[in-house]
Amino acid sequence: MSPFTQHSLVETLQAYKRTSLLKAGLELRVFDALADGPAEAATVAKAAGTDERRTAVLLGALAAVGLLDCHDTEFALPEGGELLVSTGPGFRGGAVKLLVSDAEWDAMRDLATLVRTGGPALATDPGFGYWQDFAAQATFVTKSTVEVFLDALTAWAVDRPAPHLLDLGCGHALFGLLFTQRFAHARMSGLDGADVLPAARAQAARLDVTDRAEFLAGDAFTAPLDGPYDVVVAANLLPLFSPERCAVLLRRIAGVLRPGGRLVLAGFVTGERPPAEETEAHLLSLLMLAWTTGGQAHSVATYRALLAEAGFGEPEVRPVGGLPVRVLVAGTVNEGNG
Question: What's the pLDDT at 337?
Answer without folding.
Answer: 46
